Input
Amino acid sequence: MNTETKTKELVKEKYSSIASQSKEQNLSTCCGATSGCCADDVYSIMAEEYSALKGYVPEADLGLGCGLPTEFALIKEGNTVVDLGSGAGNDVFIARRVVGEKGKVIGIDFTDGMIARARSNAEKLNYNNVEFRLGDIEDMPVTSNKADVVISNCVLNLVPNKHKVFSEIYRVLKPGGHFSISDIILEGEIPDKWKEVAELHAGCISGAIQKREYLEIIEEAGFKNMKLQKDKTILIPDEILWGYLSDEEIAEYKNSGTRIASITVYADKPAKDDRNCCEPGSGCC
Output
């Protein structure tokens, strides 16, 4: 099993466990009862407050986000929106409130438990313009040029091949469409030992890449008019650091200048594709 496959299986296992719990359980137990790590605190220090947003469904909020992409996504009535890593449906239901009955929101998640929970929430609410599809966001079960808007909340850092994901986002967006994505990035280096800790990967830290690299991947995918809509430093309390580092290592980390941040990024797919690479048989896109 290669590294990328192992990473995906790790994330799927962790989030399958999370899917069966409430937001309160996720923020007060250790990542689903079996990890013994209390890395759930990592989720809670990143989570944003959703309850003031119209369309908010408490049962769909598992406290796993690191931003409010729907707040910045410029979604319009009648739009088709695709949410990557839709979980229990939190951002899908917020977006549904904006697109109205004439619009549609499609959530994609590769965890069976999350899809089942999201579909159950939608059924209870009698929402008929939302859909939850089981699938990998590196190979989305969505036709090309389908979406007006793509959103995602603290998910892409969990995916090994970020180039492939942004290429897929480009494919499913209509010409002239756009995305607004919240994610975790780094400036500087995290301790090497963190990269081997499963809970910190599932908690969105050890899978994060450098901010510069993240933005370059977006540009390389062909997007234009990129904007940083939000950039918030994530401070990890000593109580969490003590679980992974000695006092000396904590001091070294704090003095390193490394910054972990939650960013929300916007970019457009051009109305006309001038890359000359998307013809049949071209070997790209």
User: Anything to note?
Assistant: The domain at 3-186+198-232+262-268 is CATH 3.40.50.150 (Rossmann fold).
